[in-house]
Amino acid sequence: MSRRKLTVGVYEEVLRLLELGLSVRATASTLKCSRSTVRAIRDGRRVNPSVEGENYPLWTEQVDWKYIREKLSKGDTIKDLWNFNYSELVGYSGFYRQVYRKFPNTRTKFIIHRYFNPGEYSEVDYAGMKVEWLDKRSGEIHEAPVFTGILNSSQIIYATAKCDMTSRNFIECHKSMYEYFGGVPVITVPDCLKQGVKLVHLYDPDINESYSEMAKHYGTAIVPARVRRPQDKALVESAVKLVQRFFKYFYKDHLFTSVKEINDALLRVITLINDERQHSTFKTTRRQRYEEQEKGKLKALPSTPYEYYEWKEAKVHPDSHIHIHGNYYSVPYVHRGKKVKVRVGQNQIEVFINLERIALHERCMSNHKRRITSRDHLPENAKAYYDTTPVSILSKAKNISVELHDLIDGMFKENTLANLRRSQGLIDNARKELTRSGEDRAVLVINKAVEDMKRFNKIRVPYFRDLLAKYHRESCQTKDTSIERNHNNPMLRYSNVIDISYKKTMEVNLNGSITVKEPNVRT
């Protein structure tokens, strides 16, 4: 029986089954061919029968085709493999032709060339890699995402790293990118990530409010790429791979200790790519092409730097306040229970309903649950309560003790509304002490308790109550409970050495009269 010839269909089917993860044995059993044939096809020793018989260049014998296939399966590009391994052996065009002959399945899909006018398009994206850096203080290892942008016409590249991928850092990356470019393109094309696109839609996506404000400030239009369509931003995808390749090559074993150090390294990498390395298509550097063709076409940067604003949604509480970043801000009481939009700036908080601003506050930078209240936002009864209660509390405190009055007055000067209930508790416990000990002794006990609270800077109602109980017991123990006796009173028993009996004897005489006998006195 003659030997069966390897056909193109069997060759391509072997490659397909191997890519699906089938073993050599299973592939050979399925296609009714030998395992050695499957191994030869897998390792590149057997080529496609359609090109069999053609002469291969001598340099192909020096190429490790098994290594090439392995790297291609892991996502490496043919240009990367040529650039770092065989650029001195053969040119790029000759190399990728032989790769396609050896591995026809690596041939890419149909390509459409896009043409861009200078200053028209810019594409942005986050790189797949995250650069690790060590915090010397805590010893923790963090990861910094890398933001990459490109001007489509000159293909000049920008890259920077941030601590995280929050909306604030995402917009800050755009701000620094436009400053690096020295101008603003007409259109900016991002990916459909949440920091930029709030609601994805093929024709009319909803842009994040903060991102939209940034675009209006710089005069650029945001046109997100389609979901799972990387070809819509193919240039920045290639730029990401280029930056990653050079960064890993120069800083493969380097340990970074800060994000600033990572940015310095990225700046050296993009300077090498833009200023020193010749573009394979333009036959000139990206910087030179940018200076000659695109720099003058970009929009000018705004005269004032962009200030980041964050938009949030909140619901007005029944006490006419909303909760933003750990603090409470007042809203007009007529809007209680409604949902509002909050524009959080660096220095102020603005509250909107249907594009109408209803409240404006200075932003509190602490997150200790402070209440920033405008009296005009409160109803009339609440205004009366906040206006009269502190006065009445101070009046009550002054009637009890001057020291207690001064303590509460200092608390009100620090924050009136936050210390109202605490002051009421102090006065309530002071009044109980007045009832229990009397005015003279209670004032001394209260003053000592107030002095201790000031000394230890611990003004708390439970602590004040404990101090009052402590000093009340001490005052009771030190009181002189001895009884002064009048020794001249003969009715007292055992006065000094005199023992007087309280019992008197009565005798009834025969005539009906009564005789009272005095008690015996013993000395």
Which features characterize this protein?
523 residues, 41% helix, 16 helices, 5-stranded mixed beta sheet, 5 domains, alpha+beta, single chain, 4-stranded antiparallel beta sheet, Nucleotidyltransferase, domain 5, elongated
Tell me what the structure shows.
The protein has 523 residues and is an alpha+beta fold. It has five domains: 8-106, no CATH class; 121-297, Ribonuclease H-like superfamily/Ribonuclease H (Nucleotidyltransferase, domain 5, 2-Layer Sandwich), CATH 3.30.420.10; 310-372, no CATH class; 381-478; 486-523, no CATH class. It has 16 helices and 18 strands. The strands form six sheets. It has a five-stranded mixed beta sheet with strand order 3-2-1-4-7, sandwiched between helices. A four-stranded antiparallel beta sheet has the order 8-11-12-13, with no helix packed on it. Strands 9-10-14 form a three-stranded mixed beta sheet, with no helix packed on it. Strand 11 (339-344) and strand 12 form a beta hairpin. It is elongated. The N and C termini lie far apart (153 Å).
